Structure prediction request, 107 residues.
Amino acid sequence: MHITMVKKRLADGSECRKCREVTELLEQKGLWSRIDEVLWADERDPTSPGMQLAARLGVERAPFFVVRDEQGEQVYVSVLQLIRGRLGEVSSSEQAKVIDPDEIGGI
Prediction:
């Protein structure tokens, strides 16, 4: 299994807030080492690898994850879906922590 995380880089060069939060969550849960590759969807560069992958997969928000294994390729737009589906269990309190009411817009 190979897991790619696509993070968004804003026009000012900084990493998006949600991407930072998801990275911190994965680190806290001891799961960051399971991420094999990080690609950047750079607002300043529509040809950046993350932007190209997002366009190919029809994903409009970052962060997102692509899992490749013997069954093919699967996209996870939620870190909780990734953890539940591929990396372990998620408690209700952890699930509530990552809900972001301000999450609007696309990559």
Remarks:
- The longest strand covers residues 2-9.
